[in-house]
Amino acid sequence: MNGQRIPGKPAVRRNARLGALATGALLLLLTACGGDPVPGGAGAGAGKDGGAVAPDNAASAAVVTILPKDGADSVATSGALKITAEQGKLTTVTVADSKGTPVQGRISADGTGWEPAAHLAGGTQYKVHAVAKDADGRESAKDTTFTTLVPKNTFLGHYTPEADTTVGVGMPVSINFTRGITDPEAVEKAIKVTSQPAVRIEGHWFGNDRLDFRPEEYWKAGTKVTVELNLDGVEGRPGVYGKQKKTYSFTIGRRQVSTVDATAKTMKVERDGQVIRTIPISAGAPTTTTYNGQMVISEKYKVTRMNGATVGFGGEYDIKDVPHAMRLSTSGTFIHGNYWGDPSVFGSVNTSHGCVGLRDARGAGDGSTPAAWFYDRSLIGDVVVVKNSKDKQIQPDNGLNGWNMDWSEWIS
Fold first, then answer.
1. pTM of the full predicted structure?
2. For the L,D-TPase catalytic domain, which residue ranges apply (predicted)?
């Protein structure tokens, strides 16, 4: 009609008529593609089974729970930190103190929980970051911060040998605690002793305040031993917590084991499998015999005082300058120089109050004497074995003498 107006009819614009047609076509297309409208707004559609497909930006169904709650104070160092996931599985858990030192732990096999492998330190702030995924792979994360309790009562462990020292093959790791321990399992778990070359090392408690570690046999010469004390935060007894966190090492020197024969009155000094000297000695007299057994040198004094009153012998002796003395027991057994005895007694008569005496000179200044020779060639941790004495075997806790226990008893 070439744009001419028909009389009696309203004018209809061409563009409006085209718009109406397009709208109708769009409604027809939507009806053909989707059937009933799908809830969920833009981007929603139908799955293969006709069910609704979740939109890409839907929240994860996984729920992460962290105990203690965010911002908590005075949190217990053991048993309080727990991380769980519901309607999903944990994929990432990191826990670290304010210095960034991580706390070791592991996610359970089913992915629903995480717990630390050990206790936490006292008076320390920790940050927790945990992530879980739901069945559709959508992640849910949670971050919290908490602070552990500040202990009012603490204990320490005094240890031997010292760090960076070289000791003999009989040297155990011995730790004496300042408070009696009522949870030995927790304390022992917090101490790790390893060696290179590797060997099985086990701890043994003597009472409730001393814990020693050793291998089944003497250490091999040249072994490096590392001790990790992770006692900070360990509740050793109710309300009493450890306060040490330290790692140190020491080295095992050459192998020296000396054997005292109380009947023959000699000592054979064996170094790395070879007898390097046999020394005449004087052991305990018939009424004050020397203990039998394996004894470890725990202290060395070039000159020291020995007073019988301190070890149950009253005023029988008080020698203010005993030379070249090396302790073998807590109760007072030493191997030491003797300048006051006649030289003829060494190798022929047992005259001491239980010690092992070697010929020496007063003042410890003569390096040619047998006592000086042995002192100069001995390390703390060397073994002195006494046999054929008419006395009992020394108790394993009388000094560093746990070697007198069978391995089966040590680990029981």
1. 0.82
2. 256-387
